[in-house]
Amino acid sequence: VLLTRARQGMVIVVPSGDDCALLAGIERLIADKILRQKMSEAARKRMHEEFTIEKTVEEYEGIYSTALACR
């Protein structure tokens, strides 16, 4: 999923601990209004699709069921 979004220009991937790469990514966002808008729209869409109350409740139910099964 991350690589697909990266290919679509929806994420900026930087190596961990690479401050120069992080700075370059931030500068790219500052300079590219269209990219910022695309990433913002994609993030908003993902939030509404993947982080619903229903899905959160299902995940917690699964966690609690697993924990209770261990008793």
Task: Note the main attributes of this structure.
4 helices; 76% helix; mainly alpha; single chain; 71 residues
Q: Can you characterise this structure?
A:
The model has no long low-confidence stretch (mean pLDDT 87). The longest helix has 18 residues, at 33-50. Helix content is 76%, strand content 0%. With 71 residues, it is mostly helical. It has helices at residues 2-7, 19-31, 33-50, 53-69.
Strand-helix topology:
Elements: H1 2-7, H2 19-31, H3 33-50, H4 53-69
Biggest sheet record: none
Structural class: mainly alpha
The number of helices is: 4
Given the C-alpha coordinates, what overall shape results?
A: elongated
Distance between the termini: 36 Å
- Overall strand count: 0
**Oligomer status:** single chain
* Rg measurement, Å: 18 Å
Averaged pLDDT, please? 87
Helical content class: over 70%
- Element order: H for helix, E for strand: HHHH
Which consecutive residue ranges, at least 5 long each, have pLDDT under 50?
Answer: none
- Hey, roughly how much beta strand do the residues contain? under 5%
